[in-house]
TrEMBL record, chain A:
Listed GO CC annotations: ATP-binding cassette (ABC) transporter complex
The protein, known as: Amino acid ABC transporter membrane protein 1 (PAAT family)
Transmembrane segments: 12-37, 49-70, 82-101, 180-200
SUPFAM superfamilies for this protein: MetI-like
Topological category with respect to the lipid bilayer: Multi-pass membrane protein
Domain of life: Bacteria
Family: Belongs to the binding-protein-dependent transport system permease family. HisMQ subfamily.
Record-linked InterPro entries: AA_ABC_transptr_permease_3TM (IPR010065), ArtM/GltK/GlnP/TcyL/YhdX-like (IPR043429), MetI-like (IPR000515), MetI-like_sf (IPR035906)
UniProtKB/TrEMBL annotation, chain B:
Predominant location category: membrane
Organism of this sequence: Chromohalobacter marismortui
Keyword vocabulary terms for this entry: Amino-acid transport, ATP-binding, Cell membrane, Membrane, Nucleotide-binding, Transport
Keyword Membrane: yes
Database matches in SUPFAM superfamilies: P-loop containing nucleoside triphosphate hydrolases
Membrane topology: Peripheral membrane protein
Protein name: Amino acid ABC transporter ATP-binding protein (PAAT family)
Ranges where the ABC transporter domain occurs: 12-253
InterPro entries: AAA+_ATPase, ABC_ATPase_HisP-typ, ABC_transporter-like_ATP-bd, ABC_transporter-like_CS, MetN_ABC_transporter-like, P-loop_NTPase
GO cellular component, as recorded: plasma membrane
GO terms, molecular function: ABC-type amino acid transporter activity; ATP binding; ATP hydrolysis activity
Automatic annotation (TrEMBL), chain C:
Keyword Membrane appears in the UniProt entry: yes
GO biological process, one term: amino acid transport
Bilayer-spanning residue ranges: 24-44, 56-74, 86-103, 187-206
Organism in which the protein naturally occurs: Chromohalobacter marismortui
SUPFAM superfamilies xrefs: MetI-like
Main location: membrane
Subcellular location: Cell inner membrane; Cell membrane
Keywords: Amino-acid transport, Cell membrane, Membrane, Transmembrane, Transmembrane helix, Transport
Name of the protein this chain belongs to: Amino acid ABC transporter membrane protein 2 (PAAT family)
Amino acid sequence: MNASAWQMLLEGAWTTVWISAVSIAIGVLAGLVIALIRLARIPIVDQLLVLYISVARATPLVTLALFIFLSAPDLGLDFNRSVAGILALTLNTTAFNAEIWRSAFRNFSREQREAAMATGMTPWITFRRIMLPQMVITSLPGLINEMSFLIKGSPAIAVIGIVDLTRVTNRISAVTYEPLPPILVAGALYMMVIGCLIWLQRIFERRANRLAM
Amino acid sequence: MSEANTSETAAVSIRHLSKSFDDVEVLRDVELEVKTGEVVTIIGSSGSGKSTLLRCINWLEKPDRGSIHIAGQRIGVHDDGRAMPVRELAKVRAKTGMVFQGFNLWPHLNVLHNVTEAPIHVQGKSKREAEALAKALLDKVGMSHKHDSYPNTLSGGQKQRVAIARALAMQPTVMLFDEPTSALDPELVGEVLAVIKDLSAEGYTMVMVTHEMAFARAVSDQVVFLEKGLIIERADPETFFTTPKTDRVRKFLENHDTPSPA
Amino acid sequence: MSNWEILWQARDEFLIGFWRTLEIFGLSIAGAFLIGCGLLYLLEGSRKRLTMPLRIFIDAMRMLPFLILVYLLYYGLPSVGIRLDAWWTGVGALAVYHGTYFAEIFRSNRLTFPPGQIEAAKAHGFTKSKMFFRLILPQVIMQTRPLLGNQLIYALKDTAFLVIITVRELTAVANSLSSTYFIPTEAFIVVIGFYWALSVAMEIIIKQCGRFSAKRGFDNV
């Protein structure tokens, strides 16, 4: 692989990283918001959210990305590729994150909440100061695991023409006629990123276990 | 108007309190008045409704009927029957401090921050002011050497002493103790009881549910016996433990270690 | 003619795509299951020299995007002289990839076994392979059922990646129909509905199996 091949590869890696990072950030927050809305058990809204989560979890990312990109003009929307890609990844990861947040809520200790109320905390202060900090700690291993899944699924956005770390290997081999080296390097880069996430996940698992004692 | 008057002077005033869980009546027309500086112990067998009574006082349980005033202020509902908005309820609740059987410390905060959390975020105290108060209180319960420890590194007795400091930090009108030593290993009971005894000597108003008869006899001004949600006997500790009026209490005391005056 | 009527006339193509996806899915998870069991057997076995490379292989697969493996097999293998068609590449990649996930699920469950059980079996004179097939494997499979179920749904979703190497499966059908008739929204709604129905059906079947293993005292959910 020559210098320009390496540069293309790094550009592809950058595309994968920033699109994944944006989707992860939005997905973690949106998942929390959906989990909170679901706690309120508003009729119809709740059923719609359950339907969304169930469908989004069952839909392949490739299919979702194509669906969003191809049918956006039908719905009068004009997305560029990156926005469509981010939307697909976000819609997918949000559904999983919402379930992670929700189970952190449901498993939160009633006794601790009572202790907070007994000191005169309002439900909002109790949520912000007592529940949320602990829910973040208990949810982080699950959320990080979901981040690895998102990155492993991110090559799906290649299907709508985004040149990410996977797709760029095609471009390089079209010039060099040597497909194997760029694919191997791309694989190694993915393993580095996901390896880091797995390592982080272990650290946070330990922290979460300490909290549960 | 006489009712309003007594409510003003009493730290806690409970009138006609009733509560059912499903079809079981756990509290039946309970009346109780706790004067400022008084220590009231609630005794009864398990399922008698004593914990529920205590948890009604700070509205962790909602009674079906009756009223509760804390330092003259009604908790939970307004006199016209309107439910209290959560912020207002929280304000009245802050006048009570509760110590739970299971300690219920917040595991993500260290000892010092467990104590300063509510003064800072409920009363709006400055960090410095709250920490000065917290340090004094942790000193009082003998935990000043553990400011930076996290709850999971403490023994049960230490956790409960921190929980007591946490409740005291809100400078409540009345302290509520819900079986504070029931979850402790026997050898750790003493250190917690000693702290509570100190508080009673300092004139804190306290309502306590406990199984420690000797302790109840030593610290109480008033002992209340609850049976199936009904107060069947109330007296000063001397009378209660030496000459109970009802057979039920006599039987109960026989089954527990009859305490000698401490 | 409305868009939905166009779709109805193209129903055969949908069904073919649906059938292809089912075929790929069925074959590859059967393969993945065998690979998972095989890896567990090898990890269980006495050849200690194999353990380390196997663990590295399993962990590597779990850190790799599925599509990279597909690229490796489809574009990379020809340069070492092995050429597979798109369809078999897809089935093979799915089987190997999810096989390692199965193996990892089995392995972590195997770690929770009380040692007494194995010692009792040894004391009764079970041979190694008999112990594996009659004792270890059945228990591992019963106990990991919910996790295996999740993995099946991931495997189903990964079949859609194969559209990128031109396999004519369900998503490919939606893609080509939408470009032929300009009805992407409807075409994809139908296809997503197919995936969803399959996932829900699998979830229900897994729950039903749960009742069976609960009866045998295996359910830990």
